[in-house]
Write a structure and sequence with these properties.
The structure is a homodimer of 482-residue chains.
Chain A lengths: L6 H21 L13 H5 L11 H12 L21 H13 L10 H18 L6 E5 L2 H16 L3 H4 L7 E6 L4 H9 L7 E4 L9 H13 L3 E8 L11 H11 L2 E5 L24 E4 L1 H4 L7 E5 L2 H8 L33 H35 L4 E3 L7 E6 L6 H17 L6 E5 L2 E7 L7 H23 L1
Parallel strand pairs in A: 2-3, 2-4, 4-5, 5-6
Antiparallel strand pairs in A: 1-7, 6-7, 8-9, 9-11, 10-11
C-alpha cells in the first residue's frame, strides 16, 4: 500500500483548504496588508528543532493560520500597491492546484509530452496576443532574472563565438548596455556571466527616465574604439522605479548599426501590448532579438511564470545544450521527436507552469484581459490627476501605464528633509495595514510608487490610499510647524 | 468590485478540483504511466489561436481531462521508475495549494516576513535532520541546476577576488573539476559562468563510477603547473547514471591541500543522511563549502524545491548582492532587519516554497521519513537480488541506495547488439504503460535504470517491472533465435 497520506484523508483536507482558499480570497482585503511583526518573530514562534514523529496536518494548518498568515505581506490584497502589484487570480490558482497534484517535469519532451506542448501552445498564444511576429519562440522560466540571464548568455555566445569552448579568459572585454533605470537583474545577470561590473555600462536616461539613444551610441562607439566588444543592449519597457519606456525603435537602430544583440525587458509592461490603445507604447520591440514578459506580474498568473521570447532560439540552445545519455530520447523509429525545453536555459527541472497560464488566458480571453488592464490604467490615471491637482504633491515621472511615481513636496524644506519626510509618509501609510506602497529613488531623491496590478483592487482602494497619503502628509506638515 | 472570478465561483471549482486531485492520487496507478502520444499530438488537439472571449472554466477542465492528462507522463504513478523517481506527496500538494492562493514573494524580508523566516526554519530543520553542522546556512532555489550554479559563482568569487569588478577577461584560465559521472548541470553551470568547456575537467572514475581522488590530485597539480587556476571541485553523492558516491573525505583532503572550494551535489542522495544506517555513506560531506540537496527528489516535496547549503553564505551574497533603492528596506528605527534571500542567487522573485517543505517535514517527521526511505532502499535491494541471481541480467554498478543500474546480457551478442537490445527492452517495457524505466550509458554502453522514490510504489510494482523486463528479454532472445 501507498506510504503517502491515504487519498481519502487527502480529500478531506483538500476540501478544507478549498474553503480556506475561497475564504482567503473573499476576505484578504480585511487583513492587514503588511504584518505587524519584527524580524525574528515568526522564527521564534516555531520550534527550533524538526519534529521527530509525524504530526497531524490539522496541527500544521492551525499553526499556518495562527503563525504564518499573520506574518505575511499579502500580495493578493486589493490594497497592495507595492513593487509591482500582481494577482494570484482564481483561474491561475486552480491551475497551480492541478500542477501540484500532477507533479510532472517538462525537462525533455518525453518526460511529459503534454507539459512541453502546452508550453509551446500557451507561449504562442501569448505571442499572438502581444502582436509579436511568429519568429519569436517562447519558453517559460521562473523569473525575469533568469529569462534575462539566459538571453544575455545567448548574446554572449553571439559576440564571442569561441566562448562556449574557451570561456572569457583571454578575451577582450565585453560589455552590456542598459539605462541607469534598468532593473538590477540585468547587472546581476552580467555579473553571473563573468563580465564583472566593468562589463556593464549604465547609459544615462533623459528627464523622463528613458535611455538616451545618443548616449548609447556614443558609449558603444567609444568602447569599440577602445577595443571593448559590445555584447548586448537591454531596453526596458516599463522601468521599475517610474515605469518609463525606453525608445526601443531608436535603440534598435543603434543595435543594428553595431550588430549587437537587443534584449527587451518588458517583464511588467509587456501585457500592455494586448490593449490596442497601449500597444503603440511598445512599438519597435518586435525588432529585438529577445524579449522577456512576465505573466506573473501584470497578467494575473501566480508566481512564478516568466516568458522569454527569442528570435534566434538556436542561440539559446547553443549556449546551454548539453545532452547526456540519461536524458536522451528513446530512439524514435520514424525520426520524429519533440522539443527538449531544458536546452533553453539553466534549470533542468521544469514545473508545469504553462497549465496556470493556459487557465488564465482561457478564463479571461483577449477581451477580458483588455478590460482588466484598461481598468488598472484608468485607476492609475485618476490617481495622477489627484497628485497633479495638489500643491503638496508632485508627480516625478510620466505615467504611461498603471504605476505612478510621485513625492510629497513642501516649500521651505530642503531635498534631504523631503527625502526623510517621504520615507516617514510611506511608513505611516503602510502602518495603517490598509494599503502597501513602496519607495524608490529618482533623480537622486526618494519617490513613492503606487503600482496597480491586482484584480481585486477597486477605485475605492486607490481613493483610500490617497486619503491615507494626505493624512500622513498633513501629519508631516503639522510636525514641521511645531 | 473585484475583477477576478467571484470567490464563490472559485469555491465551487476548488472543491471540484479537490475531488479530482484526490481521485487522481487514488487512481493514478491505473493510468498508463507514459502517454500514447507522438510529438505534436497534444499541440494539434488545441486551438492554434488564443481565445478572444472568456471561456468557462468547466470547458477548460474538460480539455484538461480529455487532452492534457492523457498526454502526460505520470511522475506521481507508483510504476514511475525513470530518471529519479519523485513524489508529489499529499502534504506537499496541500502546501502548494496554499502557496498558490497566497501568491507572496519572499524576495526581501519585508516583502513577506513569514515566508523568509519559514524558509530559514525549514532549511535549518532539514540541516539538523541531515546531521550537518550549524555553520551551514540554507536557502531554497528552484532546481539543483540553479543551486550548483550559485555555489560555483561563489567559488569563482573566491578564486578570482577581482572578478566581481573586472570579470574573467584577461584572467588566467580557471577550472572546475567533477567526475565523468557528474550531472550535466555542473558543466552547464560552468558554461554559464563564462569558463567555457575548457574551464571544466571531467575526472576519471573508478570501476564503481566514483571519482578517483588520485586523478583529481594529479589534474589539479598539472593545471597549477600550467598556470590554470582551480576554482571548485564538485563531488557527487549519488550520480545520475548509477547512484555512485564519490569518496568525499578524500576529495575534501585534495580541496584542502589546494585551497579549492568543495561543492557537493547530493541532490538525490542527500536525504539518505536522515537514515542512521545510510548516513555513513555520505561521511565527509560536512567538510564541503556548499551542498545541494533537493527535497523535490527523494523527500516527497512537489517540484520545485532545491536547498543550497553554504558554509560561507557571505560568498554567495558577495557574488550576487546588488540592492537598488526600490528594494531597500524601510528604515528600521532600531537598526534591526531581516534577511533578504534574493541576495543568495540570481532569481529576484521567490515563490513561497518553504511552505510545502514545512508540511512534508511535519506530516512525516524524522521517524516517518526514515521508515519511507528504508522501504525504498529495501525494494531496490530486493530487485538487485533478482538481477544478481539471473544469468540474463547483469548489475552494472553497486546499489548503495534506491537506484539500480543493470543491463540485459546474452552470450554470443556483441556489445553493440546488446546496446540495441537493451534499448528495445526498455522501450517494450515502457509501452506496457504499467511502469516507466529510463536508460543511461555506463562504461560506454547502454544500461537500464530502476529508480525508486515514489511513496505510492509498493513491492508489487517492482515485481511487475521485473516481470515485464524478463518478458521483454525473452522476446529479444526469441527474435535472436529466428
Amino acid at each position: 500500500m501507498s506510504r503517502d497520506l491515504p487519498p481519502e484523508e487527502f480529500r478531506v483536507l483538500a476540501h478544507e483548504l478549498a474553503d480556506w482558499m475561497a475564504d482567503y480570497l473573499a476576505g484578504v482585503g480585511a487583513l492587514p496588508v503588511s504584518p505587524a511583526v519584527r524580524p525574528g518573530d515568526v522564527r521564534r514562534a516555531l520550534p527550533a528543532q524538526p519534529p521527530e514523529v509525524a504530526e497531524s496536518l490539522e496541527d500544521v494548518l492551525a499553526d499556518f493560520r495562527d503563525i504564518i498568515v499573520p506574518g505575511l505581506t499579502h500580495w493578493n490584497h486589493p490594497g497592495f500597491f507595492g513593487y509591482y502589484a500582481i494577482t494570484g487570480s482564481a483561474p491561475g490558482i486552480l491551475g497551480e492546484m492541478l500542477a501540484a497534484a500532477l507533479n510532472v517535469n517538462a525537462m525533455v519532451w518525453h518526460s511529459s509530452p503534454a507539459a512541453t506542448e502546452l508550453e509551446e501552445v500557451t507561449t504562442d498564444w501569448l505571442r499572438q496576443l502581444l502582436g509579436l511576429p511568429a519568429e519569436f519562440d517562447g519558453v517559460i522560466n521562473d523569473t525575469a532574472s533568469s529569462s534575462s540571464l539566459y538571453a544575455l548568455a545567448a548574446a554572449r555566445d553571439a559576440a564571442f563565438p569561441d566562448a562556449h569552448e574557451k570561456g572569457l579568459f583571454g578575451q577582450s572585454t565585453g560589455r552590456v548596455y542598459a539605462s541607469d533605470q534598468a532593473h538590477s537583474s540585468i547587472e546581476k545577470g552580467v555579473l553571473t556571466l563573468g563580465f564583472g561590473q566593468d562589463g556593464y555600462r549604465a547609459i544615462p536616461s533623459d528627464a523622463e527616465f528613458r535611455m538616451r539613444p545618443d548616449a548609447l551610441h556614443a558609449a558603444i562607439e567609444a568602447d569599440i574604439a577602445a577595443g571593448v566588444r559590445p555584447v548586448a543592449i537591454v531596453a526596458t519597457l516599463g522601468t521599475t522605479s517610474s515605469s518609463s519606456i525606453d525608445p526601443v525603435s531608436e535603440i534598435a537602430e543603434v543595435a543594428r548599426e553595431f550588430g549587437v544583440w537587443l534584449h527587451v525587458d518588458a517583464a511588467y509592461a509587456g501585457p500592455a501590448a494586448i490593449v490596442p490603445e497601449l500597444r503603440p507604447l511598445l512599438a519597435g520591440w518586435q525588432q529585438a532579438d529577445s524579449i522577456v514578459v512576465n505573466p506573473h506580474k501584470w497578467l494575473f498568473t501566480p508566481v512564478d511564470c516568466s516568458v522569454l521570447y527569442c528570435r534566434r532560439p538556436e542561440r539559446l540552445v547553443r549556449a546551454f545544450s548539453i545532452v547526456p545519455e540519461y536524458l536522451s530520447a528513446p530512439h524514435e523509429p520514424d525520426g520524429e521527436s519533440g522539443r527538449n525545453l531544458m536546452d533553453y536555459g539553466v534549470s533542468l527541472g521544469r514545473r508545469f507552469r504553462s497549465l496556470k497560464l493556459w487557465f488564465v488566458l482561457r478564463a479571461f480571453g483577449r477581451e477580458g484581459i483588455i478590460e482588466r488592464l484598461r481598468a488598472h490604467v484608468a485607476m492609475a490615471k485618476e490617481f495622477t490627476t489627484w497628485i497633479d491637482d495638489s500643491a503638496q504633491w508632485h508627480r516625478v515621472a510620466p505615467t504611461p501605464l498603471s504605476t505612478v511615481a510621485f513625492r510629497f513636496v513642501t516649500a521651505g524644506a530642503d531635498a534631504h528633509e523631503l527625502d526623510r519626510a517621504n520615507l516617514r509618509i510611506v511608513e505611516r501609510v503602510n502602518r495603517s495595514g490598509e494599503v502597501l506602497l513602496t519607495h524608490t529613488q529618482l533623480d537622486g531623491h526618494i519617490a513613492l510608487r503606487l503600482s496597480i496590478g491586482n484584480l481585486r483592487t477597486t477605485p475605492a482602494h486607490v481613493e483610500r490610499a490617497w486619503q491615507l497619503l494626505r493624512e500622513a502628509a498633513e501629519g508631516e506638515m503639522a510636525s514641521r510647524e511645531r
